[in-house]
């Protein structure tokens, strides 16, 4: 029972992390390696706003998300836009951006505010306390995660099916040439996707970081989790990302229960290797996993 | 509307044209034209150690390791089309193989280094095989993830020394040996790879980069060739790792550090992707620079990345390609 | 005694997403023939080539080459059996010189196994093949980077790439497209010569007049289905074929 509840929470955590990345990749085929770093950045910004500038929590979150969104837009506008199509360069440069942010944060915090090491940086959860659900103790923060997670998927689903921008995003994701012929601007869509994707990363950060502490390592972990979800679920597939989140989420919780927490990473690596060997396009992947279209 | 009256034209220098093919042997000046840059490189590298003190000689050793990694990155990215974000994987694997062999079986470093190079390369290639059948992005992602996973697993299962690592490994008997071994390795690797890319296998690999479907349609299994390419690149990196663990006599998770993944990439982009020499030079420039900035800690990485992005956006051909172009061609204005 | 056909395509089908690209296509190709595949745009001709040459796996149906089932095999394995194809979208190895482009197929297992392969000097063989396809030997053309060659040469290079494999069957995917009349007329003798050397050829084409000079059997595809097969005259007088190309008459 406990596994069911914590497994679900874990799965939604993975889904939240991967959502922004999948969006950007699906729309622009650019793997945003800076995803994890934006996650951590938002955590930091919020912490700094709240603790060093004494802003109210909600305001801090909103500003941090806005900054993240703008940053995502900037990354595309300044760097990626010149490198579109050259896969090698896209990967290298977004990776470099990620390192700039993460390694910069490792030492200095934000703009000279007290640099940090260790678990001193903690975001407060929205609501403290636990409740008892079906015989399992679960804290409110985790419940909020589930709620927001599900809500977000529904919201995004509505957005991409019923708003003009959302439909344009889906169009570009499905067939770039055709969408462009219908007047959809590919670069603009990519910028929008990057903004939304970064904001999603930030939102995930605000929800999930209170469960632990903020460190630069978290940035790398988040990136790895996002990549793992995409590989297992299928690069570019939303349904696959969600399915993969659940597969990984539960697999890791179950292995923790059976073998102990330390085997989590092994399980993750093992799942990735299995998928690559037996169904490389991912669980629900539709893209050609092998070489490009002829 | 402004009428353009002249434009810039690039022409090969006449001495270059005279050098094509076998004709280069016909005159001393032409041979000098071809050999001068190469001699400059070799002599330069071999003579620098005499001009610097011991501390910087150690730095040169590090630079050599990074040069090997940069070379392997450029080979994979510039000639095969595979972006390897995990140079640290090779260093770590080579280092751990060598260190563990030395620690547990007390084989001397002259034995452990060669064994670790080959075994480490075989192991690294094996782990990367599942993604070689797939599109390039998978290789980038997996190569990025593997060094990090290696660290998680080593810490989690507390094997191979866990977080503390293993120390008291054999070290080299003299600093000159350390230095010249790595410099020789870099030069040998450089010329070997240069040779390779013009041999048949190199041509096939370049074909894979340009147009992999046509290679498949020509009856060649691209996966088989990619595996070979990765193995060769891994040999370079694993040698560096094996060498490194014996340089400081210590192995630990820092062998999988992100530094080993990123500095070679920065060196390659700056030096000129595809030029093979450029990345090596880039490594020899960036490593001492990084050492000089040691006081700034992790900000060095931030700096490499800024340099990398700046080059990528503003001067993607890199230093070496620019220099090579200038050496072989001249520009002149011509009336339209 | 009738020899068995070199290529037998049976009930080949493939769906992409919701679109049925190829549906139940069957035909045979006898050794030494030239078969034309025609049809309006979007009829699935290139998909058919991809299915036969192994770049796409069919959902249903089978392909037999020299009596051997090659359905679903990897492209390079099929090429090594002697079935090669050209690409409609030109794809030379642009950073390599023209003759180096041919080094790639000359290193395939098929060539290495053959007598010519054991002789060794690949560079010379490459230059010879280029000459056969019409690259002038003395000019610097073979040494220029393939990416800078004009289209006519690129098409010849594609054929050269196929020929380097010593194939028994070549599938030409729209070799004539984009070429000028004079370029086409100079390409036709090359194709005839290939046929005289015993190579079977399957040509996907749009330029019907030139195609009909070369072939005496044609298969017509529309919307992924075969609607006619026969000699050019038979096929062009077929009502369905006319409708496919020209559209149906509206009544009233």
Report on this model:
The complex is a heterotrimer of chains A (294), B (336) and C (252). Chain A is 72% helix and 3% strand. Chain A has 294 residues and is mostly helical. Chain A has one domain (2-220). In chain A, strands 1-2 form a two-stranded antiparallel sheet. In chain A, a hairpin with a 2-residue loop joins strand 1 (130-133) and strand 2. In chain B, strands 1-4 form a two-stranded antiparallel sheet. In chain B, strands 2-3 form a two-stranded antiparallel sheet. Chain B has 14 helices and 4 strands. Chain B is mainly alpha-helical. With 252 residues, chain C is an alpha/beta fold. In chain C, strand 4 and strand 5 form a beta hairpin. In chain C, helix 3 (98-106) runs parallel beside helix 7 and helix 6 (122-132) packs across helix 7 (151-164). At the A-B interface, helix 3, helix 4, helix 9 and helix 11 of A face helix 6, helix 9, helix 11 and helix 13 of B.
> Can you write the helix and strand succession of chain C as a string?
EEEHEEHEHHHHHEHEHEEHH
Largest sheet of chain A: 2 strands, antiparallel
Low-confidence stretches of chain A: 110-119, 289-294
Strand order of the largest sheet of chain A: 1-2
Number of helices of chain C: 11
- Which percent bin holds the helix content of chain C? 25-40%
The best one-word shape of chain C is globular
């Amino acid at each position: 029972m406990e596994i069911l509840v914590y497994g679900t929470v874990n799965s939604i955590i993975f889904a939240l992390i991967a959502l922004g990345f999948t969006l950007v990749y699906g729309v622009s085929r650019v793997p945003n390696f800076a995803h994890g770093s934006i996650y951590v950045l938002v955590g930091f910004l919020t912490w700094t706003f709240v603790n060093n500038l004494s802003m109210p929590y909600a305001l801090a979150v909103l500003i941090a998300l806005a900054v993240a969104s703008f940053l995502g837009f900037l990354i595309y506008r300044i760097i990626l836009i010149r490198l579109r199509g050259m896969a090698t360069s896209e990967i290298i440069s977004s990776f470099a951006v990620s390192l700039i942010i993460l390694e910069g944060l490792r030492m200095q915090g934000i703009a000279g505010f007290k640099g940090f090491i260790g678990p001193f940086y903690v975001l407060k959860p929205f609501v403290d306390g636990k409740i008892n659900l079906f015989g399992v103790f679960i804290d409110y923060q985790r419940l909020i995660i589930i709620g927001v997670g599900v809500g977000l998927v529904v919201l995004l689903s509505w957005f991409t099916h019923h708003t003009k921008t959302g439909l344009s995003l889906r169009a570009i994701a499905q067939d770039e040439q055709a969408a462009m012929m219908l007047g959809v601007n590919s670069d603009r869509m990519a910028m929008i996707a990057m903004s939304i994707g970064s904001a999603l990363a930030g939102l995930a950060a605000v929800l999930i970081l209170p469960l632990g502490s903020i460190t630069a390592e978290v940035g790398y972990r988040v990136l790895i989790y996002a990549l793992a979800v995409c590989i297992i679920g299928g690069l570019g597939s939303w349904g696959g990302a969600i399915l993969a989140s659940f597969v990984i989420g539960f697999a890791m919780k179950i292995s923790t229960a059976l073998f102990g927490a330390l085997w989590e990473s092994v399980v993750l690596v093992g799942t990735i290797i299995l998928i690559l060997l037996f169904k490389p396009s991912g669980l629900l992947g539709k893209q050609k996993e092998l070489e490009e279209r002829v | 509307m402004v009428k353009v009256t002249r434009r810039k034209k690039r022409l090969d220098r006449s001495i270059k044209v005279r050098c094509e093919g076998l004709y280069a042997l016909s005159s001393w000046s032409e041979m000098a034209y071809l050999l001068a840059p190469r001699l400059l490189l070799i002599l330069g590298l071999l003579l620098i150690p005499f001009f610097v003190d011991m501390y910087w000689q150690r730095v040169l050793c590090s630079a050599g390791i990074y040069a090997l990694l940069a070379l392997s990155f450029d080979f994979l990215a510039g000639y095969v089309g595979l972006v390897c974000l995990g140079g640290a994987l090779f260093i770590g694997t080579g280092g751990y193989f060598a260190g563990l062999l030395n620690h547990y079986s007390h084989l001397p470093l002259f034995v452990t280094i060669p064994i670790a190079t080959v075994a480490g390369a075989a192991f690294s290639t094996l782990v990367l095989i599942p993604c070689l059948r797939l599109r390039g992005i998978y290789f980038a992602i997996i190569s990025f993830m593997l060094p990090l996973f290696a660290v998680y697993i080593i810490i989690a299962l507390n094997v191979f020394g866990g977080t503390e690592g293993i120390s008291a490994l054999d070290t080299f008997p003299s600093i000159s040996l350390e230095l010249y071994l790595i410099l020789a390795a870099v030069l040998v690797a450089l010329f070997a790879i240069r040779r390779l890319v013009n041999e048949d296998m190199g041509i096939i690999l370049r074909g894979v980069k340009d147009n992999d479907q046509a290679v498949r349609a020509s009856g060649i299994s691209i996966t088989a060739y990619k595996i070979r390419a990765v193995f060769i690149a891994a040999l370079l990196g694993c040698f560096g790792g094996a060498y490194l663990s014996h340089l400081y006599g210590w192995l630990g998770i820092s062998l999988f550090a992100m530094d080993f993944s990123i500095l070679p990439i920065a060196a390659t982009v700056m030096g000129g992707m595809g030029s093979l020499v450029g990345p090596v030079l880039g490594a020899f420039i960036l490593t001492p620079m990084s050492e000089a900035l040691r006081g700034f800690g992790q900000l060095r990485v931030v700096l490499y990345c800024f340099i990398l992005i700046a080059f990528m956006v503003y001067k993607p051909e890199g230093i070496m390609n620019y220099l090579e172009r200038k050496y072989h061609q001249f520009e002149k204005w011509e009336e339209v | 005694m009738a020899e068995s056909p070199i290529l037998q395509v049976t009930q080949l089908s493939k769906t992409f997403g919701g679109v049925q690209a190829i549906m139940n296509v069957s035909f045979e190709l006898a050794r030494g023939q030239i078969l034309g595949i025609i049809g309006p745009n979007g009829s699935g001709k290139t998909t058919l080539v991809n299915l036969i040459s192994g770049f796409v796996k069919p959902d249903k149906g089978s392909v037999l080459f020299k009596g051997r089932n090659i359905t679903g095999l990897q492209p390079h394995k099929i090429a090594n059996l002697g079935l090669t194809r050209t690409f409609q979208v030109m794809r030379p190895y642009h950073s390599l010189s023209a003759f180096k482009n041919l080094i790639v197929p000359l290193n395939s297992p098929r060539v290495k196994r053959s007598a010519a392969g054991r002789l060794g000097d690949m560079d010379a063989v490459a230059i010879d093949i280029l000459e056969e396809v019409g690259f002038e030997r003395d000019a610097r053309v073979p040494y220029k980077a393939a990416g800078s060659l004009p289209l006519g040469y690129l098409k010849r290079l594609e054929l050269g790439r196929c020929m380097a494999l010593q194939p028994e069957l070549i599938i030409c995917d729209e070799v004539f497209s984009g070429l000028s009349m004079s370029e086409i007329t100079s390409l036709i003798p090359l194709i005839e010569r290939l046929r005289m050397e015993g190579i079977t050829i399957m040509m996907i084409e749009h330029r019907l007049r030139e195609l009909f000079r070369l072939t005496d059997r044609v298969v017509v595809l529309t919307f992924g289905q075969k609607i006619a097969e026969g000699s050019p005259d038979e096929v062009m007088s077929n009502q369905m074929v006319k409708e496919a190309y020209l559209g149906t008459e509206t009544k009233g």
